[in-house]
Amino acid sequence: MESKLADYLKMEALIRHFNFIKESSYEDVSGIWKIESGKHGPVLGVTIHTHGNEPSGLAVLAHFREKFPLEQHLRNGVVIFVLNNIPATGKFLVAGSDDEKKASRFVDVNMNRLPNDVMKCGNDDPRYEVRRAQELRSIWSQFDIGFDIHSTAQKSVGMIMNIGTVHPQLIRGFPITDIITNIENIQIGKPAVFFYGNGSIPVMGIEAGCHGNPDAFMRAIDCTEALLKNLNMIEGETEAGGREYNEYFVDGALMFPDASYSLVKPFPTYEMFTVGERIATNEKEDILAPLTGHSIFAPPGTTVKNLDEEVMFYLKPPKIITVE
Ligand SMILES: [Zn+2]
């Protein structure tokens, strides 16, 4: 059963908070809400809607503006909320059908598959996300810690998308026990988070759950609140002590050579496969699993529209890690 949505998380509230952040700017860059405590401390960057169709990000914004006003609660440092993709989110919020929602993921380029030379492209580049990444770079680079909020097309109980090393002290209290590592070394192009901070700051993402699911909204809110506590930026402590996580290492990705291919069946989150198993086919050629493991980020059905992106990722079987 899905939990019931509080009023401040309903669609009309999310639209109100979207309009607020769209109109807010910092250093002449729009889509940014900056909260200063006036006291020394870290700069936490919380980025939302790197993909337009992932409203858990707006749910977090709504929470910290309406339910738990961060302007009143922030004790140290600075929080910079950035709505990464403004027009895609605008499209999502007026989308009527599932196809329109899906099409509101990005305008021209997936902001998590930015071209490797994105910062070298002209500032008159025709692709919106390339220009947006260029204008956000000076903001993103101010982060001391980066936190990027996402959701998935398929059901999931949440994943911490770790970039680089795992930061146990930062994820304490997150209501998520699955950690995905190494995706940054497998995926095509550059994710937005690649440009956060000075290149060596702690950066994490979360996949909060299925797009638009109330549980995903709450998970995203709870993780952000836990992170703020772990950084001593708001009052309260998260529970310490030995906690077990499943660490899934991303070891490869499936790409379709052309549009004639489809998956042999839908692959739900963590669907198991064994090495050599048929994963996809065009009835002439089969694509076989290169390892024994689990899938993530497969489409809900068996086909994909965008051949420039991974169809799904291959995870090694999980390792249990205990974090103090
Ligand atoms: Zn996403």
Produce a short descriptive summary:
With 324 residues, the chain is α/β, with parallel strands linked by helices.
List the helices and strands and how they pair.
Elements: H1 11-23, E1 25-26, E2 29-30, E3 32-36, E4 43-48, H2 56-67, H3 70-73, E5 78-83, H4 86-94, H5 98-102, H6 128-140, E6 145-152, E7 159-163, H7 168-171, E8 178-181, H8 183-186, E9 203-210, H9 214-230, E10 243-254, E11 262-263, E12 272-273, E13 278-281, E14 286-288, E15 293-296, E16 312-315, E17 319-323
Parallel strand pairs: 4-5, 4-6, 6-9, 7-8, 8-10
Antiparallel strand pairs: 1-2, 3-5, 7-9, 10-16, 10-17, 11-13, 12-15, 13-14, 15-16
Bound molecules: zinc ion.
Structural write-up:
With 324 residues, the protein is an alpha/beta fold. The protein folds into two domains: 7-240, Zn peptidases (Aminopeptidase), CATH 3.40.630.10; 251-316. It is built from nine helices and 17 strands. Strands 3, 4, 5, 6, 7, 8, 9, 10, 12, 15, 16 and 17 form a twelve-stranded mixed sheet that branches. It has a three-stranded antiparallel sheet with strand order 11-13-14, with no helix packed on it. A two-stranded antiparallel ribbon has the order 1-2. Strand 1 and strand 2 (29-30) form a beta hairpin. Helix 1 packs across helix 2 and helix 2 (56-67) packs across helix 9 (214-230). It is globular. The mean pLDDT is 95. Zinc ion (ZN) is lined by residues 50-51, 54, 150.
Which keywords apply here?
324 residues, alpha/beta, Aminopeptidase, 25% helix, binds zinc ion
